[in-house]
């Protein structure tokens, strides 16, 4: 199979294990590890990693010098290697390896019925409770580059210069470091990543003390981010000696600074955790990460040896299965505490941006339109907070309800109530006469609710706000958000324009939560009631007349599609540079039970068409703060020609 085929999505399931160790009993550990390899393979893992010295136990002490133990290690490795002939999994186990007159603390890669490579530990701690130099030699003192072991027919490569690759899935290359290697001033994982390793495995047996679990967790997260890699950590736990120390059995799987899975520490038995690594994501992040690229250009390691490991067809058919549940709201954390922190930080960034712009321009007045919808609500909340922090008089906030032919009574009332309850003078200017006059002037037929009818309203509102800002010596604060900018769901030289766009870095799905967060933070029941009704109001530009009963007739999501889908597409298209087929695959998983494949595909095509065709609006967007890791500013994150064609992306979806 070609690695560039259109079903290569770069998804692979990985397992980290903390087995129950039988101290100094290699045959028992072989059985334990073999059983866990079977469990990992049965659950679809392509690679499973075990802790440091898992074949013997880390806390054997001077028993590491015993020939009986070392002989059994070689027998055990041979048995486990043979197990991979029939098992659909590659295993990485920890073992003491005898090389000439010395012993090395090693990670051993078992795959396709053989021992593929051996990586010795580089940094051996020798202080406080740790005395590894008593038994082991560091990797830097290794006298050979390959050894004969376990009756293997050919010598096995050994060293810290090994990158393990699969000939069918070359994206899935991995490197190995051991335990405290991670805490070194220059961890081996840095050079391994620069040499192309997409996954770093760490076999560890670091003992527990108060606070150390948090430190390890953060170290794994940080190193996965620094290396733009998947980082898999398997720690020793149950069964190790507790004579002087205790081992917690922590296991973590992280990617690009996010924990994907972790084991419960201090378990009495084996712990086995799984995560789906996205190798495609790692490759995309490395292509766009300036720090990573700078490190690479400063001196990419050249002397790494490439070692083949085996993956069966069940793992090299990378397009059929997504393991676990993909988040359907990538901009909005599922965890309430984390979500609250994201909302707080996003709001602070928006406020800080506006504070700086107000201070720079010495402006004491701003004008903005308040529609009773989500975007203008967040904008006025940001403005109110910015004025408060600068000690400016709230009378300088000129908020206007600008009802037109499509305005419903519900949104009009909410707009006026919101301003009043925020202590801002509620002002209203109807645009109906001006729009009617303008449409008459251009000979537009009555009762023709086309784009000209809609855009005339948006441009009339913008003209009024611009003139009002001039009159009070201030500037217009824009209200449009990032989701609308992605779709071009705004009127060019209408609501697309302002002097400062406070919401431009915030997607629609997050705006609801920020408003809810502000409502809770303010602790004002009246304000909270109005904000909740605004959150519950259907999203609409209100540019077409309401229904006979006065309800909103024009609902945005009926026209361009659900924002939860479009924000999902935006995140994975711009943030991860995923191909349409992969986005479709992930969306099917994320929205299972909500949207079927046909529906998702329909809106994905609309997203792509609009994203490409509406770039000219983003190319002319006003200043505004970047809030999330994804942004669409033509001066920053997203630089794209306005006449780029979407045909290639659409054709991949069968169009």
Task: Chart the SSEs and their pairings.
Elements: E1 11-18, H1 26-42, E2 47-49, H2 67-86, E3 90-99, E4 102-111, E5 114-120, E6 146-147, E7 156-157, E8 162-165, E9 174-178, H3 188-194, E10 199-204, H4 212-226, E11 230-235, E12 251-255, E13 258-262, E14 271-278, H5 279-288, H6 290-297, E15 305-308, H7 313-316, H8 336-361, E16 366-369, H9 374-390, E17 397-401, H10 409-421, E18 427-428, H11 432-441, H12 451-472, E19 475-478, H13 482-487, E20 500-501, H14 508-522, H15 525-536, H16 556-559, H17 563-575, H18 580-590, H19 597-613, H20 615-619, H21 647-651
Parallel strand pairs: 1-2, 2-3, 8-15, 9-10, 10-11, 16-17, 16-19, 17-18, 19-20
Antiparallel strand pairs: 1-14, 3-4, 4-5, 6-7, 11-12, 12-13
Helix pairs in contact: 1-2, 8-9, 8-14, 9-14, 10-15, 11-12, 14-15, 17-19, 18-19
